[in-house]
Amino acid sequence: MTELPHIKSLRGGTTAAIAAADLDLKTALAQETARRWFARTLSMRSPRDPVLPARPGRPERPELIPPRHMEKRSLHTLKGRIALLHALAHIELNAVDLALDIVARFTTERVPHSFFDGWMQVAFEEAKHFRLIRDRLRDLGADYGDLPAHDGLWQAAHDTRNDLTARLAVVPLILEARGLDVTPTLQAKMRETGDDASADILDIIYNDEKGHVAVGAKWFRFLCAREKKDPSATFRELVRTNFRGPLKPPFNDVARAEAGLTPSFYRSLVSVSQS
Questions:
Q1: What is the domain range of residue 144?
Q2: Which of 29, 91, 122, 212 has its CA 20 to 30 A from that of 177?
Q3: What is the distance, to the nearest Å, from the Cα of residue 90 to the centroid of all Cα atoms in its chain?
Q4: Does pTM surpass 0.90?
Q5: What does the angle CA 56 – CA 81 – CA 185 come to, to the nearest 5 degrees?
Q6: 39 assigned to some structural domain
Q7: Is residue 146 a part of any domain in this protein?
Q8: 6: pLDDT confidence band, cut at 50, 70 and 90?
Q9: What is the DSSP letter of 55?
């Protein structure tokens, strides 16, 4: 059992988790900070909170390479399924840090405590997802760090570090929503190959991710309402300013709408981003 440092506050616990290079410690800190926050045994901030790092702590491996250099493999081979699970583990690890960062960075923001409840629930579940996928990789004779991974995900956090509304637009409403688009197909392919254990993990992740997008949509709309701005128009403006990649169909319109992300948000951005 990983021994946890003393958690003095919500900001302190989330910052310590972000900084942790030991991934067992990182996920344990994320979940224990969430438990204590939900139990209302933590203050929001403490004068002795550590400084938020510019980048999250990471082990020496995996090697980080540009996304275009990532090798694509067929899911019909064991190596291909391991490669996919490794990529998903890397996404979930970044998602842990992104959820923690939105809490640690914005504890001085004028939002209700329920804002932090939502994001600590997200951080707790992302830590669960990372552990589930890592355990599955180990079942298949591999581990996180065995393959290269790309370093594009943290850029979203860096680019929106000074603007909570932009952070909500880019991270949950683009990056997390993308998971709703692609996961059902990956689930089906895993089941075609007979890898039901991996597909079952993807089921858990898919259902949780709907809730994560919903948290993002709820608070994005809250901030827009407070500023008397139209949510769809504001989203499109922030994406054009803060997001570097294209928005690519197909979109899982049903799951997105269940999470509060209607087509008026993203449909008109496809032609703009691909032009």
A1: 72-274
A2: 29
A3: 10
A4: yes
A5: 90
A6: no
A7: yes
A8: confident
A9: S
